Structures are given as structure tokens and as C-alpha cells.
Amino acid sequence: IRALERLELFLYRNASAIISLTHAFKANLVGRGIPKGKIAVVLNGVDLWRYGPREPDPYLEEIFEGHCQFVVGYIGTHGMAHGLENVLKAADILRDREDITFLLVGAGSERAKLIAKARDNRLDNVTFMSPQPKEMVPAVWSQCQVALVHLRNLSAFKEVIPSKMFEAMGMGLPIILSLPEGEASAILAETGAGVHIPPDDP
Predict the structure, then answer these.
(1) Residue 15's CB: how many other CB atoms inside 10 A?
(2) Residues 132, 133, 139, 144: is their CA dihedral positive or negative?
(3) What is the distance between the alpha carbons of residues 159 and 180, in angstroms, rounded to a whole number?
(4) Backbone dihedral region of 30: left (phi > 0), alpha (psi from -120 to 50 degrees) or beta?
(5) Which of 17, 19, 59, 181 is deepest in the core (most CB within 10 A)?
(6) Long-range contacts for 95-100 (Cβ within 8 Å, ≥24 apart)?
(7) What is the CB neighbour count within 10 angstroms for residue 191?
(8) Using 50, 70 and 90 to split pLDDT, how confident is the model at 6?
């Protein structure tokens, strides 16, 4: 790891310019001796021609058997970092609310375990959808009334800005942001695009 870090810093020092995706990443580099003048911060974003408010996709409405429900959507990796077992706990708390359902879309190392847990706990208010091609993602978001952006309570996640935040904002969806307070929650507060809740708290 030390050898790789020396190579990393060598590349940073010899680069003409560096693009950082967050202000926190820039601060980290400056703290490691990289001149701040050659570091530019360029936040992620979305193609607004692809992501924008729209009516629910009629084909995908069949997923919910035509019921008019409040759909909490999560689209992304189902990995250890995402803490989606917490979402299943929230679904368990809300199991008697027939008007609320959770839609989890994507793949990842924890997906099979999550599906098994939802089945074993008879969480009929949780629907799993396989990963979708990029061109289908806006149609999936169109089924949702709110977008869930979810990470575990790890200090490293104070510095990240999940790209799905920008997808949801482009779609005009309010966001439930569950991760440590940091850059992502600051963007949410500045834009008024949703609510920030404590991570790991169903």
C-alpha cells in the first residue's frame, strides 16, 4: 500500500492539472502536499435530456399490479457499503401500510442475502428488480414517489456524493438521504431537494 501511495503522489505532483469530484477529496490532496492551485473540483451531474420529470412508464406499472402505491425507490449497488438490510428493517416496521412499497433495483454482493431475508420475513412490501440498462433507469425512477440514497454509517462516506442523488434531482424526485453528514447532505440542504436522516436507523 505504501508503494502504491508513493506512485499515486508522484502522479499527482507531476500532473499538469487534477480534477476532483468533491471538495473533500481536494482538501485531502492539499493536506498531502499537492498544490491547491492545480486542483479543480467538478461535481458529478446528469444528462438532463435523459433524466427529467415524466409520467410513470406503463410497462413497468405492471410490477405493482396496477395498485396506486407510494414507491420508495433505490437504484444502485446492493453491496456491503450500502447497508440495505436497514431498509428491510424499515419495510418491516411499515409492513401494515399497504400504500407504501419499497423497490430495490440493481446487483451486488448482498443482493441474494437481501432477497432471502425479505422472503423469510415475508416482506411483501419489498420488490426486487434485476439490474437495468442505463437507458431504462429513468423509466424505473418514473415509478417512484421518492428516491432513497443509502449508505452505512462510516466516516469515509462523509466525503462522497452518490451520483444517484443527481439522477433523482433530474427526475424531480424528492430524496431520502441516509448517510453520514457531509458533502452530500450539504448539497441536499442547499437545494432543498429532500431530507437527510441518520444512517443505520430504520
Answers:
(1) 12
(2) positive
(3) 9
(4) alpha
(5) 181
(6) 95/123, 95/124, 95/125, 97/125, 98/69, 98/125, 99/68, 99/69, 99/70, 100/69, 100/70, 100/72, 100/125
(7) 11
(8) very high
Q: Which residues of 135-159 are buried (b: 16+ CB within 10 A; e: fewer)?
A: eebbebbbbbebbbbbbbeeeebeb
What pLDDT band is residue 123 in, cutting at 50, 70 and 90? very high
**Is residue 89 classed as helix, strand or coil in its secondary structure?**
helix
Q: In which band, very low, low, confident or very high, does the pLDDT at 56 lie, cut at 50, 70 and 90?
A: confident
Beta strands 39-41; 18-20: pairing state: parallel
Q: What is the DSSP letter of 162?
A: -
Entry pTM: 0.87
> Containing H/E element for 41?
strand 39-41
Confidence (pLDDT) at 156: 86
167 within 8 A of 180, measured Cβ to Cβ: no
Take residue 2 and report the three cell numbers written for it: 505504501
CA pair distance 80, 200, nearest whole angstrom: 13
Q: What's the CA gap between 198 and 202, in Å, rounded?
A: 9
Check: CB of residue 51 under 8 Å from CB of residue 138.
yes
